[in-house]
Amino acid sequence: MSRFPSRCPGVLGGLGLGLGLGLALALVGPVSAAPQATQGSPAKVPDSASGLFVSPFGEPFRSSHGLADWFAGADGDHNGILTLKEFTADGLRFLTVLDTDKDGRVDGFENSTYENEVAPEILPQSAVFRPGREDSDGAGTPAPRARGLEGASTFGLLDEPQPVRGADLNYDGKITAAEQAKAAERRFGFLDPEATGELVLPALQSRMTARQAPPTSFGRFFRRRPD
Ligand SMILES: [Ca+2]
Ligand SMILES: [Ca+2]
Question: Which among 152, 134, 150 has a CA at the least distance from the CA of 142?
Fold first, then answer.
């Protein structure tokens, strides 16, 4: 399974819309390659209505069961439970993917590559957010902005429109492994509000379903924000 998306030139440019700020990261130790989904994996059910799931670290999985695919890869010991250690390792692994010049950090250029080539769907000018889709996609499903979702939050579990830049905790335009690890801890906490120390796929799928559900009449303004 290729975990790196194909180039999508259609949305190049326009980085000035707030998503063009640099970021950078530095990584430290090697991170083991994502394992393959294997035994113990729940039956794959559609969990990403849009056909795209963006992981808590910003990695796109283009599949109707992208959430399950991400979970299977991040669950290093394949026991069906995602621990903070495994979750963090997944974030550090993706950081190394984005650090194309291998200087130990993700800088503004690498962030631009992320936005334009790795996950262009999260950009404001992507088709998902095109004017005319504010209210409905034509099939009765409210468009993302009608549900209060922006950028990557439209396709994921957390309210972070740009998860890569979101890990730049000191706003210096660089993302280090230490920052990524801290971001992982914070995000894990959002996904594990009861502080059990364990994430399981069914609960995450329920969360995803709730996030993608059409809003109530007041949902646009009062959408439940579990995080
Ligand atoms: Ca595990
Ligand atoms: Ca770099």
Answer: 134
> Is the CB of residue 96 less than 8 Å from the CB of residue 107?
no
Q: Tell me the pLDDT tens digit for each residue of 33-46.
A: 444 444 444 556 67
| Mean of the per-residue pLDDT values of the chain | 78
Calpha distance 98→167 (Å, rounded):
13
Chain mean position to CA 44: 19
Residue with tokens 């957390």: 158
pTM of whole model > 0.85? Answer: no
- Ligand 1 centroid–CA 223 distance in Å is 31
Could you tell me where the DSSP H helices lie in the chain? 66-74, 84-98, 108-113, 163-166, 177-191, 201-212, 219-222
Q: Which ligand is nearest to the CA of 75?
A: 1
User: Directed axis angle between helix 84-98 and helix 66-74, to 10°?
Assistant: 100
The encoded tokens of residue 32 equal: 């083991």
Least Cα distance to 27 among 109, 80, 90 occurs for: 90
Q: What is the 92 CA–ligand 1 centroid distance (Å)?
A: 16
CA-to-CA dists, residue 76 to 70, 149, 171, 190, 192, angstroms: 11, 30, 31, 21, 18
**Mean per-residue pLDDT, 85-99:** 98
Question: Any idea which of 8-12, 48-52, 162-166, 181-185 has the lowest mean pLDDT?
Answer: 8-12
What's the token pair of residue 49? 């209505």
Residues around the ion ligand 1 (C-beta < 5 A): 75, 77, 79, 81
As a whole-number percent, the residues of the chain with pLDDT over 70 amount to 64
